[in-house]
Amino acid sequence: MKPVITIDGPAGAGKSTVSKALAARLKFIYLDTGALYRALAYKALKCRIDVNDPDKLGQLCSNTDVILKNKNRAMSVFVDGEDVGNKIRTEEVGLAASTLSTFPVVREKLLYLQREAGGRGGIVAEGRDMGSVVFPDAEIKIFLDADVGERIRRRHDQLVEKNSSVVLSDISRDMQARDHQDSRRKIAPLVAAPGAIIIDSTSLNVSQVVEKILEHISGVHD
Ligand code: DC
């Protein structure tokens, strides 16, 4: 069976770009698990559901159909039949996803979907708890980090590229709130999983990070 590669790390560390590039190089499936939390957050915001209310979130989870569809080795998320695609890529949705992801009812709903997607190996799975909770037996675990100032700058550039009107100080505030919430929560907090290789991408470009991971993979499989 082909390996499972997990890539965890804080917002803006470059996980998505690196994971996509790595999956393309290896011809593996790319799974963005943040998109699942974002998808539920998107529906919560649309239906004006309080993302801090566990009872309301329980109802949301029971009444929402979330599925993953494999399109050319990238998993797209569908919520009640709607391909949520780019609609979930806003800072508002990201922050709401960070909040609702602290609740067990939400994590339980999404756990099975993630394991099912990775069950046959040959996958690069990115998120916060890939190596620690979802795929604890993954052959290759990476924790991708970067200096907070650099992460804020990267997120700002990404949003500007998408023509969003963004203010650097808002991104800074939201990212620090997310960092705090994602790493301090009781269940499945953001941590470097035991055995994870820690890569600091502050002064590395995407190809350099991908090369580092590939070197590590060939070391493991020698
Ligand atoms: O990776 P992202 O920024 O798209 O994730 C959005 C939020 O979803 C993140 O702030 C926390 C949550 N999340 C999580 O709790 N566990 C994951 N495996 C992935 C994301």
Distance between the termini: 16 Å
Give helix and strand order, one letter per element, not per position. EHEHHEEEHHEHEHHEH
What share of residues are in beta strands? 15-25%
* Largest pleated sheet: 5 strands, parallel
What are the distinct ligands in this entry? 2'-deoxycytidine-5'-monophosphate
The poorly predicted ranges are none
Q: Whole-number average pLDDT?
A: 94
- The total of beta strands comes to 8
Portion of residues within helices:
40-55%
Overall radius of gyration: 17 Å
- What overall form do the CA principal axes indicate? globular
State the CATH architecture.
3-Layer(aba) Sandwich
The CATH class turns out to be Alpha Beta
The total of helices stands at 9
Number of structural domains: 1
CATH homology superfamily: P-loop containing nucleotide triphosphate hydrolases
> Biggest sheet: strands side by side, in what order?
2-6-1-7-8
Write a structural description.
Strand 4 (74-79) and strand 5 (82-83) form a beta hairpin. Strands 2-6-1-7-8 form a five-stranded parallel beta sheet, with helices on both faces. Strands 3-4-5 form a three-stranded antiparallel beta sheet, covered by helices on one side. It is 50% helix and 17% strand. The chain starts with a strand and ends with a helix. It contains nine helices and eight strands. The model has no long low-confidence stretch (mean pLDDT 94). With 222 residues, the chain is an alpha/beta fold. The chain binds 2'-deoxycytidine-5'-monophosphate. 2'-deoxycytidine-5'-monophosphate binds at residues 11, 33-34, 37-38, 94, 97-98, 101, 127-129, 178, 182. The site of 2'-deoxycytidine-5'-monophosphate has 14 residues, from helix 2, helix 4 and helix 8.
